[in-house]
Each structure stands twice: as C-alpha cells, then as structure tokens.
Amino acid sequence: MELAWPAKLAVWIVPVLFAITVHEVAHGWVARQLGDRTAQMMGRLTLNPIKHIDPVGTLLVPAMLLLLGSGILMGWAKPVPVVMRNLRRPRRDMALVAAAGPAANLLMALGWAVVTRLAVDYHLALEGDTGVAALFVLSAGVAGVFINTVLMVLNLLPIPPLDGGRVLAGLVPAAVSGWLDRMEPYGLIIVLVLLVSGGLAWLMLPAVNFVLAAILDLVQVSMTDYVQVYSMIQPRLGS
C-alpha cells in the first residue's frame, strides 16, 4: 500500500518544517548563551517557520528532489545570523553554535521515534484496527525520524558552510581554519553537485542507516516495520 500524493504531503510537511526550524533556532539559542544576541534581535528565535523559510533550501531544492524522483526529501532553512566576534571565545563557541543544529535534529529524531513507538503500541493494542488519525501519527513519526536523521548527517559533513565544516574549523589549527573559511563560498555548489551526481547519497547512506538502526533499536521498533511504513510515504512524484 502506498499513500496518495496529497496524503504524503500532509504527513511530511509538519516534520520537515519542525526539523529545519528547530535546527536554526538551536543555533541562535546557543549563540545567545555564548554572548551573541544577533538572532534574538532579528526575531529569529521563534518557532514560526515563516521567519526561517529559504526560497532555495526550503522550496526549490525539495521540489527538485521530487522532480528528479530521488526518493529523498530534504532541505534547509535561512541561516540564523551569528556574529562571531560577539562570542566570548569565538573559534570554540562558533563550533558549539554549529553543533547545536545537528544536536537538535538528533533530539527531534529521538522524539519522533517515541511517537512512532507509541503509535505502534496503539496499533497492536487495537489488533490492527486503527483509524486514519492513528495511521497519520504513525506515518508522521516515521517521516520525522527519517528527515531529522538525514539533516543531522548532512549537516555534519565537513564541508563549509555546513555545520560540520564549522565544527571542524573550530577544532583544527588556525591556518587550516582559514582555508576552510575561504572554501565556504563554494561549499553549497559542492553539495549540490554531489546531490545531483549521486555522490551525496553514497557519502551519507552508511551513516544514515547506522543512526536510524540505533534510534529504532533504542525505542524497540523493528527496522522491518519502519521500512514498511516508510515505503507508504516515500516522496516520489506522481504517486
């Protein structure tokens, strides 16, 4: 069984918007704790997704992935502004700010996994006789685990301006950090080329599968059941 396209859109939209919005708010919140209030002053410490929508990352890239039939739905929000010189220990603190986004995605993936576990228990308690609302919650849980795991792994790639690149810049010697900073204007182009060529999936798939398996094992949801539900909601154009 596979859901119709409008039902798939309804299942994915809430987890995706939460994933990219909370990711960016986490950056701004940690920056505020470490001395930079720029995001707060610009009204970006809000869960209102409209404040975080990026025309390319939130709209164009997901649409392209659907048109290409990639089977993976992902994107990003408008980056939260962080002024590095305002941080108390700029290099170290910038790495912490960068790490906050993927950490938020990991916590959300765990939260959605709990939702999935509860939905599975409800389904079993009623001996499979569940309604549309329960199926929606189960599907949203599966989508939430997937999109947050993908975004966490994607953002941890050590390619500036991804978070992994900024974390790496805070850990390496200053000379290497400077080279990473100079690479940043080309980082998004590198990511898009990898995406279109299939190289991004090749880089990410082992880590995504490992994290997914660990999360599902933690909440005791079988990978077989997870894949069965995911196959119903997998984003493919025309289905």
Structure, described:
The protein has helices at residues 5-33, 38-41, 55-67, 90-125, 132-155, 163-171, 174-197, 199-219, 223-233. The chain is an all-alpha fold. The model has no long low-confidence stretch (mean pLDDT 87). It has one domain (5-233). The longest helix is centred in the middle third of the chain and has 36 residues, at 90-125. It is built from nine helices and no strands.
What descriptive keywords fit this protein?
0% strand, 9 helices, mainly alpha, 239 residues
Give a concise summary.
The protein is an all-alpha fold and 239 residues long.
Question: Which SSEs are present, and which pair or pack?
Answer:
Blueprint: H1 5-33, H2 38-41, H3 55-67, H4 90-125, H5 132-155, H6 163-171, H7 174-197, H8 199-219, H9 223-233
Helix pairs in contact: 1-4, 1-5, 4-5, 4-6, 5-8, 5-9, 6-7
Query: Termini distance?
Result: 11 Å
The percent of residues in helical segments reads over 70%
Strand content: under 5%
The main sheet comes to:
none
Q: How many E strands?
A: 0
Count of domain modules: 1
Uncertain residue segments: none
Secondary-structure element sequence?
A: HHHHHHHHH
CA gyration radius, whole angstroms: 19 Å
| Integer average pLDDT | 87
Number of helical segments with 4 or more residues: 9
- Per the principal axes of the C-alpha atoms, what is the gross shape? globular
What structural class should be given to the helix and strand makeup? mainly alpha
